[in-house]
Amino acid sequence: xxxxxxxxxxxxxxxxxxxxxxxxxxxxxxxxxxxxxxxxxxxxxxxxxxxxxxxxxxxxxxxxxxxxxxxxxxxxxxxxxxxxxxxxxxxxxxxxxxxxxxxxxxxxxxxxxxxxxxxxxxxxxxxxxxxxxxxxxxxxxxxxxxxxxxxxxxxxxxxxxxxxxxxxxxxxxxxxxxxxxxxxxxxxxxxxxxxxxxxxxx
Length: 202
Hints:
Layout: E1 17-19, E2 25-27, H1 31-50, H2 56-77, H3 86-101, H4 116-139, H5 146-169, H6 184-193
Helix pairs in contact: 1-2, 1-4, 3-5, 4-5
């Protein structure tokens, strides 16, 4: 991990292999490389989200998450190495509890929609789930620490909660609330809640 990039186009990967942090070379379709790639994509997606107008506290949290994801990727790049700290997972748990406490209970499933920032948070959520699946797949074949899998699982939950927070922040004027899936159950509940004069007629 002490080496720093001085040359980008090394051509060493032209044969379909790539180097891990411990110097060994593996095929680019290796499960470890797939997991590292998904974590990198997740970090990049959070970078796109950070380009949007965000509440200051959410921005500060996501910057920390980016650094922790870089540590997570570094840990995956060296079999048997530990880099992601226990405090990282504890920080996600604390953020989840903090932001979720201010949100109303969900009446139904919600769509990944609303403000652009909320939609981007949902994309990050789905990439986090894919990265988690990739780490689980790797774990079935090689020893991997628990922290990367747990961190990605918790981060996906946090991105869901932050999407709801960002819709309410409404910084682009296009949100304000969750975008609910139009289920028959929710429609019936809403109809039952209407006064008789306001209820839709067939």
